[in-house]
Amino acid sequence: MSVATRQAITPAPFGFRVLPSAEAVPNARRRVIRTVRGWGLPLAEDVFRDVELLSSELITNAVSHTHAPCVVCVSWDGDRLRVEVTDVGHELPAVGGIDLDATDGRGLFLVAALATDWGAEPDSAGKRIWCEVGTIAAVSGDERLTALMRAAAPKARDVVPTSA
Fold first, then answer.
1. How far apart are CA 93 and CA 84, in angstroms?
2. How far apart are CA 37 and CA 43, in angstroms?
3. Cα separation of the two ends of the chain
4. Which of 71, 49, 47, 46 is nearest to 58 (CA)?
5. Residues 123 and 90: beta-carbon distance below 8 Å
6. Cβ–Cβ contacts within 10 Å for residue 99, how many?
7. CA distance 125 to 115
8. pLDDT confidence of 163, banded at 50, 70, 90?
9. What Cα–Cα distance (Å) separates residue 128 from each residue in 8, 12, 22, 70, 153?
10. Which of 6, 66, 132, 133 is the most buried (most CB within 10 A)?
11. What is the Cα–Cα distance from 98 to 39, expressed in whole angstroms?
């Protein structure tokens, strides 16, 4: 008797262009999530939320810093979901210290905190910044709460997470 094995099918990468406006970002973020959900990947709900947030951050940075269209590509390698954003900017981003009094500048902090891995590299068009997430969220519990609070609350300096 033969036993049929179920072979996982890796979906083809999906890419699309995003116009250079803040109004285009929510639609692009939703498009990423619709695509990933449509693939039926074995991702926890927290991972979907992370992908939505991380995609939004990468796309927002590309649009707001270059004032030009960008290209988003989503792919799955069987273990990790990767979101890449290619834009015309040539300066590679880096995470520095976070200024809790600033009204912006927390996007890459969030990417570094929530993604399983991330990076940026030169591209013939300018640069490509990417993030990857695994089947479970890279951080959870107090670490996740701390990352989200630091990114969202400019006056969060007085908030100190406590361990249970």
1. 14
2. 9
3. 53
4. 71
5. no
6. 11
7. 24
8. low
9. 28, 19, 19, 10, 28
10. 133
11. 36
120: Cβ contacts below 8 Å, ≥ 6 apart: 92, 93, 127, 128, 129, 130
pLDDT category at 112 given cuts 50, 70, 90 is: confident
Total residue count of the chain as it appears in this document: 164
Residues ≥6 apart with Cβ < 8 Å to 140: 46
Specify the 3-state DSSP secondary structure of 121.
strand
What are the distances in angstroms from CA 50 to CA 13, 20, 62, 130, 133? Answer: 19, 23, 18, 14, 8
Residue type, 98: I
The model's pLDDT over 15-26, given as tens digits with 9 standing for 90+, comes to 999 999 999 999
> How many other β-carbons are positioned within 10 Å of the β-carbon of residue 154?
14
**Helices and strands, number each (H, E), in the chain:** 4, 5
Residue 96 has what pLDDT? 61
Residues 35, 44: Cα–Cα separation, whole Å:
15
**Model pTM score:** 0.77
Question: What is the rounded CA–CA span in Å between residue 134 and residue 64?
Answer: 28
In the β-sheet with 126-133, what is the strand arrangement from edge to edge? Answer: 14-18, 70-76, 81-87, 126-133, 117-123
Alpha helices in the chain (DSSP H): 24-39, 45-66, 107-114, 141-152
